[in-house]
Design goal:
The protein is α/β, with parallel strands linked by helices. α1 runs parallel beside α8 and α3 packs antiparallel against α4. The model has no long low-confidence stretch (mean pLDDT about 95). The structure holds flavin-adenine dinucleotide and nicotinamide-adenine-dinucleotide (NAD). The site of flavin-adenine dinucleotide has 35 residues, from α1, β2, α2, α3 and α8. The site of nicotinamide-adenine-dinucleotide (NAD) has 27 residues, from α6, β12 and β18.
């Protein structure tokens, strides 16, 4: 009889966990995946990437019809919002994709263990009444919304919601306040702004989208403002109270000063996410978390406990589905005795607003800091206004920026604001993985007319020689 029930047990079936489970099974290992949620796919498929993109896509069409973009192209329409149907197509997308993972588990013979797992020892977890043992265990428990002290979220009442509640509002609020000018605030704020809400975004820092390139942060705020989103920067929310059908927020300047109040019909709390590591019984295996509650791992995703591994949102790094997926593949390969590697320097990030905002590698500020001297960094920038396809499609906003090391010309980072920036950034990622120079991108033939020609032109601009500017 085998010493353990499974070769590998993965805890959590989000993009990190389900991918790790499938890859481990593909490599010939006997695998189970524990998931406490009713459906597979984790945050991403159930309440994250997929439902938010379903609403972003649909609301983009509504906005184009309602706010003149279609009329500009000779299509006169007077759209009428059917919010129930819009939610219906969101739920269909979630249903189809989560069932798709169920199918993939069956196809790859991954056993789905239903319930929340707690460690008993380094090879044993308990899920309800069931005990499961495995030679190797992968923690892929993801993350949850960070609460804001003084603010009680109640998604069922729709007045003060988190991202999950903001995906399910039964009607368009008249006035919505978004706490946090990060990715969730801007994506979900955009959805409800397009559908008719007056949206104000309150951000603690002096600029939105922390972590992104400085130019990109400034320019994108200007674009959102043109779309009707108001911003209160350098401001923190200290409390929210609900009376009747109104929420009242108390705000204070981040640097200190007099408090003010603001009313809203709906408040979205989107100030970040924190790792799901409580309740896993990590004490039972002597595994400690860092100050942020994350599990630290070596580069091969092994924790300080030899047969226990960790990936995705519960370990340090950006909380992104594709980062979790790549770590899922790598950890399975490492467990199987192969060499699984993730290059954390080349993880693209995309904000799926209109236009999209995307970047990979270093920001200009980080590049200058890393090189220690502004003169050691060269930047080429090309406006979407001068890109023939973007101009023809009535999408003039944004730019592409290529950041290269001055001496070697090696690309250090690429940033873009463009209608399809999320798709355009993939070529920058590949170029950087292959150690490309800006000249390599500039001399690569790009199809015409495409938005991606702006990447080529921005690369040409690094040497000061773009054609269409
Ligand atoms: P998760 O997806 O969080 O999955 C972890 C799973 O583990 C959960 O299903 C949980 O129920 C389960 N679990 C936890 N503890 C236990 C336990 N003890 N036993 C059993 N099961 C357990 N990222 C992008 O890259 N692109 C996007 O467009 C994007 N949009 C987003 C939009 C929103 C509104 C949100 C909230 C997030 C978004 N993200 C996006 C982030 C993305 O969802 C996460 O980075 C990603 O889901 C992390 O994957 P994971 O596998 O690490 O964890
Ligand atoms: P975030 O970290 O992106 O942004 C949170 C923002 O809230 C920050 O700008 C922060 O300065 C601000 N803030 C914090 N406390 C505040 C306060 N008291 N008052 C006002 N502002 C305050 O977090 P998020 O938007 O909640 O997203 C969580 C995670 O989910 C992110 O790490 C992101 O990577 C992931 N996500 C990714 C995507 C995507 O890839 N398109 C989409 C959604 C979410």
């Amino acid at each position: 009889m085998a010493e353990y029930d499974y070769d590998v047990l993965v805890i959590g079936a989000g993009p990190g966990g389900y991918v790790a489970a499938i890859r481990a099974a593909q490599l010939g290992l006997k695998v189970a995946c524990a998931e406490g949620r009713e459906t597979l796919g984790g945050t991403c498929l159930n309440v994250g990437c997929i439902p938010s993109k379903a609403l972003l896509h649909a609301s983009e069409y509504f906005d184009a019809a309602a706010n003149g973009a279609m009329a500009d192209m000779g299509i006169d329409v007077a759209p009428k919002l059917n919010l129930d149907k819009m939610h219906g197509q969101r739920l269909d997308a979630v249903d189809g994709l989560t069932k798709g993972i169920e199918f993939l588990f069956k196809k790859n013979k991954v056993d789905w263990k239903k319930g929340y797992a707690t460690f008993q020892d380094a090879h044993t977890v308990k899920l309800g009444d069931e005990t499961v043992t495995a030679k190797d265990i992968v923690i892929a428990t993801g993350s949850s919304v960070t609460p804001l002290p003084g603010v009680d979220v109640d998604n069922s009442k729709h007045f003060v919601v988190d991202s999950t509640g903001a995906l399910e509002l039964p009607k368009v609020p008249k006035k919505m306040v978004v706490i946090g000018g990060g990715v969730i605030g801007l994506e979900l704020g955009s959805v409800w702004n397009r559908l008719g809400a007056e949206v104000t975004c309150v951000e603690f820092l002096d600029e939105i989208l922390p972590g992104m390139d400085g130019d990109v942060r400034k320019e994108s705020r200007k674009i959102f403002k043109k779309q009707g989103i108001e911003f209160k920067l350098g401001t923190k929310v200290t409390g929210v109270s609900v009376k009747g059908k109104k929420a009242t927020l108390t705000l204070e300047p981040a640097a200190g000063g007099d408090a003010e109040t603001m009313e809203a019909d709906c408040v979205l709390v989107s100030i970040g996410r924190r790792p799901n590591t409580d309740g896993l019984g990590l004490d039972a295996i002597g595994l400690e978390t860092n100050q942020r509650g994350q599990i630290e791992t070596a580069h091969d995703f092994r924790t300080s406990v030899d047969n226990v591994w960790a990936i995705g949102d519960c370990i340090p790094g950006p909380m992104l589905a594709h980062k979790a997926e790549d770590e899922g593949i790598a950890v399975a390969e490492n467990i199987a005795g192969e060499t699984g590697i993730v290059n954390h320097d080349v993880i693209p990030s995309v904000v799926y607003t209109w236009p999209e905002i995307a970047g990979v590698g270093l920001t200009t500020e980080q590049a200058i800091e890393k090189m220690g001297d502004k003169a050691k960094v060269k930047v080429g920038k090309f406006p979407m206004m001068a890109n023939s396809r973007a101009k023809t499609n009535h999408e003039p906003d944004g730019f592409v920026k290529v950041i290269a090391e001055a001496e070697s010309d090696r690309v250090l980072g690429v940033w873009a604001i463009a209608s399809v920036a999320g798709t355009m950034i993939a070529e920058a990622g590949i170029a950087m993985e292959f150690g490309a120079t800006s000249e390599d991108i500039a001399y690569t033939c790009h199809a015409h007319p495409t938005h991606s020609e702006a990447v080529k032109e921005a690369a040409m601009a690094v040497q000061g020689k773009p054609i269409h500017m």
